[in-house]
Amino acid sequence: MESSILAAASVARASVPATVLSPLFPSSRPVVLRTDVAGPSPAARAVRCRAAEGSVLHRLDDEMFNSSEVIQWESGKSINSIAAAQGIRIRRRCRPRYPSEGVGADRDVPRNVLEQIIWDKEVEVSQRKAKAPLQKVMESAERAPPPRDFVGALDAARRRNGLPALIAEVKKASPIKGLLREHFNPVEIAHAYEKNGAACLSILTDEKHFLGSFDNLETVRNSGVNCPLLCKEFVIDVWQIYYARSKGADAVLLIAAVLPDLDIKYMLRVCRSLGMTALVEVHDERELDRVLKIDGVQIIGINNRSLGTFEVDTANTDMLLRKRGDVIRKKGIKVVSESGLFTPDDVAYVHNAGVSAVLVGESLVTQDDPGRAIAGLFGKELLH
Q: DSSP H helical segments within the chain, as ranges?
């Protein structure tokens, strides 16, 4: 399995130069995979990239094909070293089985919970792709009903209520808190959220650590819920984006702490081709600065949970907006505050900081009536 987009970023075939037309973007011009750039020889590039044959990423344009990340990768740098230079601390393993089940060199200990999730996700995605190849999933995505307007729904809710729009999360468990709700009916919860003013819904799809599923996403989409749906998945491969669209997702989560810049750029491009929205999540100032340099970002999520300690502090939203709020506003980017929101004071605090929306799960789903809990969170009933 490709460990990231960098591992499949260029496919200069043995007979170079090559011209490839991407079926993802029917109006785009043919892409000439150039070989007159600094770095390895054409033969070396072809050998280095042979493992990427058949990948959707052979359809990169010149700018991406000649990006510094691709040149570094072709020169022999590891994906982890390229990512580390961008401040990414989550390493990639790319093993065919779960790292905890290996022995010797195949066995490793993750640095934190997020790294463990990503290692497990690599195995899961590899297994899923073997059962449902990318081309098949792409065709399913094309047949899915048109995506709903995620950004428009947030804007409308904010205008109606004069408060940050709510992205309410359908979430059964977390690796930190364990089981959050014994009686878990995703459709029932989703309808309760919508009835009580949620603008959009976030559906956890990770099975191993959050007890979620893509079946939950599809079931909620087919249940008559009108809210746009965010697929809350740990995306490491474009396959997941197409699969989410095929199941009815209108938006996906991209985590800057996991994805190098080139991955984010390409995944944003895939989302646009599908009419989907990408919520790009950051945790700190360095990640935010990286994301602000990438064109096409519409929504940034600020996660108030520390990746190192997993402690939550809503001051993280305020701090980052104080430092970069002017740039964010100039670019017209909307900000979502995530994690640590339990009371009307919490919502008011991030509202005053300048957010457009809040993403809330735990403080709602743990209540007897998650829908009615929305009024308690905001201090009033929301119009819908």
A: 42-49, 62-65, 68-74, 79-85, 113-131, 134-143, 150-161, 186-195, 214-221, 238-246, 261-274, 285-292, 315-331, 344-353, 362-365, 373-378
Residues labelled catalytic: 169, 171, 232, 281, 303, 338-339
In this structure, what token pair is assigned to residue 203? 């559906």
93 phi/psi in degrees, rounded to 5: -110, -45
Which residue's structure tokens are 């996700």? 121
Mean pLDDT of successive 10-residue stretches along the chain, which has 384 residues: 48 30 30 39 41 47 79 85 93 68 65 91 94 96 97 98 98 94 96 98 97 98 98 96 98 97 95 97 98 97 86 96 98 98 98 98 96 98 94
What is the CATH classification number for the domain harbouring 187?
3.20.20.70
Structural domains in the chain (count) = 2
Q: Can you give the pTM of this predicted structure?
A: 0.87
Residue 253 CA to residue 150 CA, distance in Å, equals 12
Closest CA to 280 of 309, 253, 311, 304: 253
Tell me: do 191 and 263 sit in the same domain.
yes
| Residue 139 maps to a domain | no
Whether residues 108 and 202 share a domain: the answer is no
| 109 and 244 housed in the same domain | no
Structural domain harbouring 273 = 150-378
CA–CA gap between residue 69 and residue 82 (Å, rounded)? 7
